[in-house]
Each structure stands twice: as C-alpha cells, then as structure tokens.
Write a structure and sequence with these properties.
With 218 residues, the protein is an all-alpha fold. Helices cover 79% and strands 0% of the residues. It has helices at 4-41, 51-66, 69-75, 77-84, 90-113, 118-126, 131-142, 144-164, 172-180, 185-213. α1 (4-41) crosses α9 (172-180), α6 (118-126) runs antiparallel to α7 (131-142) and α8 runs antiparallel to α10 (185-213).
Amino acid sequence: MFDPQLVKLFGDGILETLYMTLVSTAISYLLGLPIGVLLTTSAPDGISPRPVLYRTLGVVVNILRSVPFLILMVCVLGLTRFLVGTIIGSTAVIPPLVIAAAPYVGRMVEGSLKEVDHGVIEAAQSMGASVFQIITRVLLPESTPSLLNGAAIVTTTILSYSAMAGALGGGGLGAIAINYHRFQPDMMWIAVVLLVLLVQLIQLIGDRLVVKSDKRRR
C-alpha cells in the first residue's frame, strides 16, 4: 500500500523540516530574547530608559522585519555561504531563517514583557531590586505563559518560512511540494497536509505548556 521510497522521501522531508525549524527557533531566541528585553527596559516607560538605544534598536528590528523572506534569502547568500559553506540544502536555510526570525522574536518578547503588571515591577523597585533582578525575577517569570505562547507562534512562522525556502534550494517538505507540484500534484498535497499537521502539533504542544505555566489556571 505504501511505497517504501515515498515513505522515506516524506520521512526525510519531515526530519529536515523539523531540523530547520527547531534549530532556527533556538538560535533566534538566543538572539531575539535579549533584543526583546532591551526594547522593553530601554523604552521611555521602561525600568532603564535609554531613548537613543531604544530608537536605534527599534529601527534595525523594523527594517529586518519588513524584508520579505525570499528576498532576504537572496540578499544573504554570501553570508550563508561564508557561515555554512553552501547555499543549498537544509543547513543553508538556517542563517536567513534566523535573520528573519530574531527581530520577530524580539518584538514578541517585548510584547510579552510589557504585559507584566506595573504594580509588581514597582513593588520590586521599592524593595531595591536591580534592573537585572527585575528582569530575571519579575519580568521573565511573570510573562512565562505569554512567552511560551509567542514561542509557539514563532516556531510555526519559522516552519512556514522553511517551506518557502524550498523555492530557492532549501530542503524539507517545502522542497517536495515545490518540486513535485507540476507533474505529481498528489505529492504536493501530501506535503501540504504534513506541514499542516506539524503546525497543529507545535501549536498543541505550545498550548499545553502555556496552561501548565499559567499560575492563574492552577
């Protein structure tokens, strides 16, 4: 019933898609989380206002977020070749995915941190907490459910970007869908269904983590 070659093809596609998505998400958060914290703390109403830093960082983030992903991939081909030694394949997709996602992560983190009740922050300041202590003991813990929800959204967004990368030599399910869409449309639809299922799985995991981390629902 199942062709072993097709099973292997789609199995490899799923693994490549997860590899691109999860590695890119992890690196994007390593870069984007500090960006989001800086945007929050350096804002005019932040705990450590720095207008110049806030405006400069905001402009850079907005510029990177405004570039369409496929165009960004082309623009950073030289950087991709320098970093990973090739511009084709799953690994070659990771640098542009990170460049595209890290600013998005920064804005998501900023939005989550700004949801924290100012009364809690003011209470920590009145007890003499430093900026670092407020970040690590108040802002991040209090915003954990929102951060996890944002992480699920970011991960599914990166997954969709990785699928688009198949148009420019990337691997994974996106490449299968694009390569087979003309002469074997059924293969394309199988790849699309698998992508949808992966998105649903990631969102389901994210939703459960949010519920477990939300103290208000315990």
